[in-house]
Design a protein that fits this description.
Structural class: alpha/beta
Radius of gyration: 24 Å
Largest sheet: 8 strands, mixed
Order of helices and strands: HHHEEEEEHHEHEEHEEEHEHEEHHHEHH
Number of strands: 15
Shape: elongated
């Protein structure tokens, strides 16, 4: 009996070793194909340099829809289609922010209105600036101290977090809530310190939101250097600010997410890989999220090029409107539910095109442990962290339906230097790092397709 059991265990061990070796060989083929022949970098150049930034509702976004549709066909998709999405339309327009001391002249500051903010209707709105360092400090101010003032929320991006997305999450509440907090106490508009890990003077935009039944007053962001200079001035004198902005919501319109897939050979259960096609209206949307789009298309192209016979349907989704509404992700989840489509797994790349370091896994413990058991296969490619538990913003509707979801985790140290700024350009993306991210996602999807 012991001899039979021992032989069985030996055979199982040999099978596992053989499978692991086979997977390791396939991982190398995937990496070699993408690093040597991948088109993601040249496609990113095309997207960013010929179309540029792609705010939802803009003419540039509609051009990117046609671009993505063609690239999915070129990559070898069996089916490509557009999914209708009703999106909010926000426009920036001309804007300016000036300050002056009691005896001085007006000085222009670099600034950006926050996304979805209402403006001043092209009129000057001015008042005295008061500064707070935290929401807790602001909450202690009586309304009479805020009424008719401009509130400057000077909360710095924490440098203590090694994982910079945690610093971003910590500071993000100031961007989303500053306008409504100010309005509740009668303030005229809000200024925030940008959510930036850099020590420079580049303002960062990004979505804010208004609370119901609260006045919709403007909110703008300034760079770190300007924030420090303004803080120093406020310690010794009264400062007046003047804002003139033409931004605002312009209703809704019909737009599209772009979807392409290669049909499964065993069944049509779906594995999703995606990013968001839209971007803010500054920079070129290269890291956020042109990188995720071209990486996702690269996954499909590589399966076709290497002749990998996928068991399940591999579907690329280029989501609409992630930045200021998430309407693409919401609509995709709604359609999946209505059609009762079986989805096995979904992964998004929306953290920049930097070198991949891991994959966050937002799923039950059994699935997490299975993927973590493959970690040795990823180590030669610098991918080692499978401990985090979150997934991409566009995938939350799928996750809420119980579908295992994930997000590629690139090295995060430089992302929030340029996130949502004019600095997010093609030149900031490294070819090898971008393609290594595509390889990591392809390798993971290969394993899931084979084993789930």
């Amino acid at each position: 009996m012991k001899k039979i059991l021992g032989t069985t265990l030996l055979l199982l061990g040999m099978t596992a070793f053989s499978q692991s070796k086979e997977d390791s060989v396939q991982f190398k083929k995937i990496s070699n194909e993408i690093l040597n022949n991948g088109k993601g970098y040249t496609e990113l150049r095309e997207l960013t340099k010929t179309i540029g930034h792609r705010l939802s509702g803009s003419g540039a976004y509609e051009k990117s829809v046609k671009w993505a549709e063609q690239k999915l066909r070129d990559a070898g998709a069996d089916k490509v289609w557009l999914q209708e999405v009703i999106i909010p339309v926000w426009e920036r327009g001309k804007e300016s922010l000036h300050i002056k001391t009691s005896g001085g002249s007006w000085k222009s500051l670099k600034m950006l209105s926050l996304g979805n903010s209402e403006g001043t209707g092209g009129k000057d709105v001015s008042g005295e600036i008061i500064m707070v360092k935290s929401i807790e400090e602001y909450d202690k101010l009586p309304a009479e101290k805020v009424k008719d003032k401009i509130v400057f929320f000077n909360y710095p991006f924490s440098q203590s977090f090694i994982e910079t997305f945690k610093g971003y999450s910590d500071a993000a509440k100031y961007r989303t809530t500053a306008a409504s907090l100010t309005a509740k106490k009668g303030g005229k508009f809000a200024i925030i310190r940008s959510l930036s890990s850099a020590f420079d003077d580049i303002p960062h935009t990004g979505a804010m939101r208004y609370e119901d039944q609260v006045s919709k007053i403007p909110a703008v962001a300034i760079g770190s250097t300007t924030a420090d200079e303004l803080e120093a001035l406020l310690k010794s004198q009264k400062i007046t600010a003047k804002l003139n902005s033409n931004c605002g919501m312009k209703g809704e319109k019909l737009s599209y997410s772009v979807i392409g897939e290669i049909t499964g050979k065993k069944d049509q259960s779906v594995i999703v890989v995606g990013g968001h096609l839209d971007s803010w209206d500054v920079g070129e949307g290269a890291h956020d999220d042109g990188a995720g789009i071209v990486q996702s298309i690269e996954v499909l192209r590589t399966f076709k090029k290497l002749g990998i016979q996928n068991n399940h349907t591999i579907r690329v989704v280029c989501f609409a409107n992630e930045e200021n509404g998430v309407k693409g992700g919401i609509q995709y989840g709604k359609t999946v539910k209505e059609k009762n489509e079986k989805h096995l797994f979904a992964i998004e790349s929306d953290a920049g095109g930097f070198a991949p370091r891991g994959v966050a896994l937002d799923m039950d413990d059994a699935r997490r442990k299975q993927i973590q058991g493959w970690s040795k296969l990823f180590l030669p490619y610098g991918v080692y962290n499978f401990e985090e538990r979150f997934s991409g913003t566009d995938l939350y509707p799928l996750h809420d339906m119980g579908i295992p979801a994930a997000e590629l985790m690139p090295d995060s140290q430089r992302y929030f230097d340029i996130h949502h700024t004019e600095e997010d350009t093609f030149e900031k993306v490294n070819r090898r790092e971008l393609l290594l991210g595509a390889a990591a996602m392809t390798q993971l999807i290969y394993m899931i397709d084979k084993n789930w």
